[in-house]
Each structure stands twice: as C-alpha cells, then as structure tokens.
Amino acid sequence: MFDVKMRLVSMLGLLTVIVVFGLVLDYLHVLRRPMRLGLWLAVLGILFGFFLTLSAVLPDNTVFGPVITEGQTSQKIVALTFDDGPYPPYTGQLLDVLKEYDVPATFFVIGKNAEKHPELIRRIVAEGHQLGNHTYSHIDLLKAEPAEVSREVEKAGRVIAAITGEAPQIVRPPHGFRDPVVLDVMKERGLKVVEWSVASRDWTNPGVSVIVERTVSRVKSGSVILLHDGDGVAASASRAQTVEATRHIIRELKAQGYRFVTVNEILTKQEEP
Ligand SMILES: [Zn+2]
C-alpha cells in the first residue's frame, strides 16, 4: 500500500504536524465555512494515526506490505508456532509432548537464546520441526534504526546457521511489530514475515484451561497458532502452562480432525490461488 519507505514514527510525526496545523486553522477561524475544515483535518489526522499504529502492531493485516497470517485452505490443517525460546526446561518438555503425539511445529527462536542452548536447536531440527528467525535480542524493531534491524535478523540467522548449517527462511518480528522499513529489510534478506491468526496471550500465564479455550475456539482451517516456549531474553517466567496447554490443544484439535503442519506447509497453501 505504501511505496514510500517511511518509518512508522516519521509518519506519526508528520500526522502530528497536520493535526496541529488543522487545530490552529480552526482556532484562528480560518476555513470554517461551509464546514470547519481545520477541525476535520485534525480529526482525520488522528484517525489515520490510529490506523497506521494498528497496522504496525496487529498481526492480521498487510497495510505495510505482505505478511503471512494464515493459510488459505479448506483442508483441516493448523500450524503450531512457539516464540522466544529455546528456554530450558520448557522447550525440552514441549518437544517431548510434540514427539508423544507425533506433531511437527515451528519455533521462532531468539538468536541470543539459541547461542546459550545450541543442543535444543539441534533437537528441534532433528525431531522434524521448522526453525524461524525471531531476531538476535528481541528488540522492538519499530524503534530500531534500519541498520540495527538488519543486524538483528542477520546475526540471529548466523547463530542458527552455525548450529544447524542453515539459516531460517522465515522471520517473525518481536511482538509482530513492523513498518515499511522493517518489511523492506526482511524482503532484502529473502525472509518471509510470518505473523499469526490465533493468539491466546499464553505469555501472561492465564491458566491452562484459558489458553486451551482461547486457542481451540478460534482455530479454523489454515490457522497459525501463536504460543511461547520462551520468555524474551529475560527468560524468567514459567512456561509450564503453555507446555500443558499444548498437550490439550493437540488432543482437542486432533479429535476435531485437524492435522498439524509446519509453517512451510502453510506457506504452500498461501501461494496457491
Ligand atoms: Zn517474541
């Protein structure tokens, strides 16, 4: 939608100037007939600012450029994705659950955490799961300089490649936040941006049954489910609820006839007409 490679913060800055300009016109009684144009300009500026901010933070829109939110398919397939790991003991426990039910998943790992726990990265790959890039230090990319955005994804890719021999082809920006420049950097590096369509806010540890209910009730064919095996770079919160909830989510969705796939398989469903 936007060809201009502008940062969100610059767009909001520009809109602030327009809003102030509109208010000043109105205050000075300029352009008040046939309607209060200055006031309307200010109102539109504020609304557009909200729209741009929501476009940067909400996962399911392509206002700033293409992102994958879910697969376009009538097949009953879903992708489990886990962010912020690897993080012992939870990543290992989760891998045990996935193995028990023979379910593949996709792990968007933080470079720093991968460096600390390469054995978990090797296990993720050895057990047939897919890896994704979740930046090196989990910073808010909306606030980072373009060069830093580049460094963050590049470094995470290098860390993962040093462990597995291959850098991931998919990326999930921390919190899903992106603007035109962030998306441009990802595109330049040949990385596909993957958001999600189902989130349970499991990172707030709301209780196993809440995570399961919020997830299962929203799932449909092609859903990409967001869960967390890690806790940013701080790595202090428990992910025991997510591990237990994953077991129930798998059981319930399997009972409903869903099959679990990696994000790669969702991507093929995205590209089909
Ligand atoms: Zn994250």
**Multimeric state of these chains?**
single chain
CATH superfamily of the largest domain: Glycoside hydrolase/deacetylase
Shape: elongated
- What is the CATH architecture term of the largest domain? Alpha-Beta Barrel
Structural class: alpha/beta
Bound molecules: zinc ion
Helix content: 40-55%
Beginning-to-end CA distance, first to last residue? 21 Å
| Percentage of residues in strands | 5-15%
CATH class of the largest domain: Alpha Beta
What's the mean pLDDT score? 95
Q: In angstroms, what is the radius of gyration?
A: 21 Å
Instruction: Please report the total strand number as a whole number.
Output: 8
The tally of domains stands at 2
Q: The CATH topology of the largest domain, please?
A: TIM Barrel
**Major pleated sheet:** 6 strands, parallel
Number of helices: 10
Output the helix-strand order.
HHEHEHHEHEHEEHEHEH
Q: Stretches where pLDDT falls below 50 for ≥5 residues?
A: none
Topology:
Blueprint: H1 8-27, H2 37-57, E1 77-83, H3 90-100, E2 106-109, H4 111-116, H5 118-126, E3 130-133, H6 146-164, E4 170-171, H7 180-188, E5 192-193, E6 198-199, H8 208-216, E7 224-228, H9 240-255, E8 259-261, H10 263-271
Parallel strand pairs: 1-2, 1-7, 1-8, 2-3, 4-5, 6-7
Residues 83-84, 134, 138, 174 line the site of zinc ion (ZN).
